[in-house]
Amino acid sequence: MSKTLFFEQLSIHVRIGTGQEERSRPQRLLLSGEIELSEIPWGNDAIHKTVDYDRLLREIVAKGEASEFFLLERLGEAIVDHVMGIFPGVAGMTLSLWKDPPPLPLPLGRVGLRVRETRPRWEDRKSRKRQEKRNEKIQEGPE
Question: What's residue 135's pLDDT?
Fold first, then answer.
């Protein structure tokens, strides 16, 4: 049996935008997501054997509000990296992000971004980045 945590319209305030003026003050963003859990024993009733969604949501808010971003794409990546890095029980994650209200002069409900990552792809990407850093150090040589 697969298990998925979900949350809808988590409100965070982020300094985000392509121009300095837009990033000069935090903007309200809404986030919704689905968190696929790794295998959890059937009949589990212990919070330490699953992903604590209170902590998960607090970590998402903290990550988003602690930095400044130009694009939703980078913010989404940063949140996914953060969640995957501290919650080994997350097997996959889908995150939707949008500014509220939309920053466009059009009759529009919302426009945003959806990011999807799986644990194997995330681990492969992290492994490649570590290898690239090792290669850079080798190329630089001794100091």
Answer: 85
* Backbone conformation region of residue 60, classed left if phi is above 0, alpha if psi is from -120 to 50, else beta: alpha
**Assigned token pair, 123:** 């681990």
pLDDT confidence tier of residue 102, bands split at 50, 70 and 90: confident
Phi, psi of 139 (to 5 degrees): -65, -35
Let me know the angle formed at the C-alpha of 75 by 21 and 62, rounded to the nearest 5 degrees: 95
Under DSSP, the state recorded for 10 is E
39 band by pLDDT with thresholds 50, 70 and 90 = confident
Domains present along the chain, CATH in parentheses: 4-118 (3.30.1130.10)
In which band, very low, low, confident or very high, does the pLDDT at 120 lie, cut at 50, 70 and 90? very high
How many Å apart are CA 84 and CA 19, to the nearest integer? Answer: 30
Among 75, 52, 54, residue whose Cα is nearest residue 65:
75
* Torsion, Cα of 70, 113, 121, 81 (10° steps): 50
CA distance 106 to 3: 38
